[in-house]
Amino acid sequence: MKVAEWIGILAGIFTTIAAMPQIIKVWKSKKVDDVSWGMFCILILGVFLWTVYGIIKEDYPIIITNGISTILNSIMLALIIKYRK
Amino acid sequence: MKVAEWIGILAGIFTTIAAMPQIIKVWKSKKVDDVSWGMFCILILGVFLWTVYGIIKEDYPIIITNGISTILNSIMLALIIKYRK
Fold first, then answer.
1. Considering just the CA atoms, what is the radius of gyration of chain A in Å?
2. How far is CA A40 from the centre of its chain?
3. Which of A43, A66, A74, B22 is the most exposed place for a label (fewest CB within 10 A)?
4. What domain range includes position B45?
5. What's the rounded mean pLDDT across residues A16-20?
6. Is the pLDDT score of B1 beyond 90?
7. pLDDT value of position A78
8. What is the ipTM, given to two decimal places?
9. Cβ atoms B63, B51 nearer than 8 A
10. By the CB < 8 Å criterion, does A21 face chain B?
11. Residue A31: how many other CB atoms lie within 10 Å
């Protein structure tokens, strides 16, 4: 596999799992006052559209990375709604 | 332009500007206690690698969207470092 493919895979993994530390932090602290729900709404919309784009193009790396991102960022948005005062 | 291209452009715009609401919220509140710096470190690494991927592939939409994301998420990380207690 070429260098570009390895960089693409690494990039996809990092951008996919990026929400994890924030989910874990909120899961422990139960505090979301400083976290922007707007960011996660826009992010979910974006990665969902990337998933649709991947489905149309039948591009499995794009479908998988953005599909997982849609789920993780939706979990984060649910936590914000749950713990928001 | 085909539907897929429009969806890709919209997806790119949303994922690029997603950090803006969080930057504005922190800029106003000066509070970052609940925000995960880990998320932004991983996100910056990911979108930076996507930018490198785009440069190798000479894919300008990928370079532009992820280049802007790298800048915006770096600004957010700087704000976290600045306002962290």
1. 14
2. 8
3. A74
4. 3-83
5. 95
6. no
7. 97
8. 0.88
9. yes
10. yes
11. 14
Task: Provide the number of structural domains found in chain A.
Answer: 1
B53: chain A residues, CB-CB within 8 Å: 4, 7-8, 11
CATH number of the domain residue B21 falls in: 1.20.1280.290
At position A8, the amino acid (one-letter code) is G
pLDDT given at position A32: 96
- What are B21-63's pLDDT values in tens digits? 999 999 999 999 999 999 999 999 999 999 999 999 998 888 9
DSSP 8-state class, residue A36:
-
Cα distance between residue B85 and residue B73, in whole Å: 20
Q: How many residues does chain A have?
A: 85
Rounded-to-integer distance, Cα B64 and Cα B76, Å: 18
Find the mean pLDDT for residues B64-74: 94
- The minimal CB distance from A49 to the residues B7, B19, B50 is found for B7
Angle at B54 between CA B64 and CA B23, to 5 degrees: 40
Alpha-carbon dihedral of residues B5, B6, B10, B15, nearest 10 degrees? -10
